[in-house]
Amino acid sequence: MTTEQHITFTDWLHDSSRGHGALPANLIQTLMVTAEACRRIGAAIGQGALAGVLGAAGSENVQGEDQKKLDVIANDILLQLHSDGSHLAGMASEEMDDPFPVPHPGSEGAYLLLFDPLDGSSNIDINAPVGTIFSVLPAPNGCDARDASVFLQPGSAQVAAGYAIYGPSTQFILTLGHGVHAFTLDRYSGELLLTQENLTLPAQTQEFAINMSNQRFWEAPVQSYVADLLAGKTGPRAKDFNMRWVAAMVADVHRLLCRGGVFLYPLDSKMASKGGKLRLMYEANPMAWLVEQAGGEASTGHQRIMDIQPSGLHQRVPVMLGASEEIAELTRLHSA
Ligand code: AHG
Ligand code: MN
Ligand code: MN
Ligand code: MN
């Protein structure tokens, strides 16, 4: 129906006339396979109870979280589809303790792929939006991808990052460092079609996202920031703020890219020993890059997220991202 009017994801990736030169074939392959994996994950999610994919898997991941069946299914789809090609040296995931090297005799994979196969998995059982987040890093020459340390590159080294959101429609959001672009799955043809280029995140907002139930556990700067937002027009910020929380980072960040806002998962006293809730390598870094590419900012409160030198594959960090005016205010409160 709509296929004639929109460029396909495949054509978009091959179109070097976009002004930034031709993409390396291995990167095109990485992105096409990731998009196809997301299409299949979305199809499994869409079948829901009919396919018997809902509920707990009966296992725990390295984070100590109970895995859902779909966490495991989504992880397996990504591993399986990427295992065949020679484009990757290895993969790492929220659902695997250790990296997964991709064997290919006689050649070397050019990239490392990190992913959160199913983000917001507590939404699965209530038929609410979930997603897949991914980050592509260069593979160091001759690296052994069994070694987690080859993955420990800062977010500023990413060559591609994005997510799929499985909502009323399935969308694939991508940055290669030249803006943020949105593709929508045509469920009739199975094609991903370009529906929006250069998503932008305004510097100002009147909407914030945070899990308010953790309020008593936050540190003082976040306590005072949110108190100011809640004070509304007569408070120090002199405007009213609305609040939203989908409980899937993908959906909350997607809202920011569609209509602005600020998203926080700050450090709290329950998570202090872990460093935060969200994971640097496959949640915070890819989302930080997307937000920056859309004109926003991403910080821990003390430091730009993409400047962090990672110390572990599953490292957690405080996350504050979105409208630059809000991140500036949060940074000011953290340094006060
Ligand atoms: P995941 O499902 O991949 O483990 O990630 C869940 C994360 C993130 O998506 C979301 O922002 C946050 O956890 C929700 O946390 P609360 O349970 O505190 O709402
Ligand atoms: Mn999880
Ligand atoms: Mn997640
Ligand atoms: Mn997950």
Automatic annotation (TrEMBL):
Its EC number is 3.1.3.11. The keyword Transmembrane does not apply. Keywords: Carbohydrate metabolism, Cytoplasm, Hydrolase, Magnesium, Metal-binding. Mg(2+) 2 binds at D116, D119, E283. Substrate binds at D119, G120, S121, S122, N211, K277. HAMAP family: FBPase_class1. Homotetramer. This is Fructose-1,6-bisphosphatase class 1. It comes from Paraperlucidibaca wandonensis. The gene is fbp.
